[in-house]
Design a protein that fits this description.
The protein is α+β, with helices and mostly antiparallel strands. The protein contains four helices and four strands, in the order βαββαβαα. A four-stranded antiparallel sheet has the order 2-3-1-4. Strand 2 and strand 3 form a beta hairpin. The longest helix has 50 residues.
Length: 188
């Protein structure tokens, strides 16, 4: 007796909440366990926009089951998926025709290594984002300090009092009077 490895991608209604999704996950894991299969991994791909409307919905929630079992296990799982109203579509692929126990353990180990590597990368990316934010903040503070040092403090100009305002067209005390401007005085 040999096992096969399967991947089943399931498109769920976008209105499935986390509680309903957890119930569905345990239901399908139980079907796999009853069929003498083992779940290699479960991946929640989340809500995504669809390329075209399915059941008049523009969004869908994707879930991936990677499991191993006998050939009749995939047909039983698909039968249950067809009966579930929250499942819009599904696709099952046979990825390995002879998935032995050694390969199963190696796959679990690879998944664990990949998960730890992904966590490290996410931590490094978060640290880099924080460092970039700090550097940008320091740079903006430095620029504001430089601008405040470059611009001299503007002193307010003294406003003349109301009586000091010159009349429009009247000669001012300091300005020389030109006789050519005033023809009446030039004739004297």
């Amino acid at each position: 007796m040999y096992f096969r490895r399967y991947e089943t991608l399931i498109l769920l209604s976008p209105h499935v909440n986390a509680e309903q999704q957890a119930v569905m996950k345990t239901k399908y894991e139980d079907i796999i366990a009853k069929g003498a299969g083992q779940v290699v991994r479960f991946e929640d791909r989340g809500r995504q926009k669809l390329a075209y409307p399915v059941n008049k919905e523009l969004y869908g929630h994707y879930v991936l089951f990677d499991y191993r079992g006998q050939a009749n296990l995939s047909t039983e799982l698909e039968r249950n998926l067809k009966l579930d109203e929250k499942v819009f579509k599904f696709l099952t692929l046979s990825t390995d025709k002879n998935f032995s126990e050694e390969r199963y353990q190696a796959a679990l180990e690879n998944l664990a290594n990949e998960a730890s590597r992904r966590e490290k990368e996410q931590a490094q990316a978060a640290e880099a984002r924080e460092e970039a934010a700090r550097a940008a903040q320091e740079q903006s503070q430095e620029q504001s300090r430089e601008q405040s040092q470059e611009q001299p403090q503007e002193q307010p100009q003294e406003q003349p009092e109301e009586g000091d305002l010159p009349l429009v067209g009247a000669p001012q005390d300091d300005a020389p009077v030109d006789d050519a401007d005033n023809p009446a005085e030039a004739a004297d």
